[in-house]
Structure of MOXD2 protein:
Amino acid sequence: MMAVSSRIYGMLFILFLPCFCSGQHAAPLLLFSTFLDPPYMASLRWDHNKEELMTFELQICTTGWVASGFSPHGELSGSDILIGGVFPDGSIYFSVS
C-alpha cells in the first residue's frame, strides 16, 4: 500500500508541476483518453512509460471539488482516494488518503 501511495505522490507531482511553474508548459503526450460522462464535462487522459509509471490527466468543468480513486480490486476498501479543488480565492488544494 505504501509503495502505491509513494508512486501516486510521484505521479501527482508530475501532473501538477505545471500549476506551480511560471510560463507556458507543453502538455504531456498521453496516448489514451475517454470522457467519463455523457455531457462531456469530465475527461481522463493517461499513458505509461517503459518503467510502467502511469501519468494521468483529469479535466473536469467544475467550480467546486473532484475526487478520484485507485483500487487494485475496484472496491472502495483499501483504495487510494485523491481529492482536489479550487477555493473561492483561486488557490488550489489537493490531498491523497
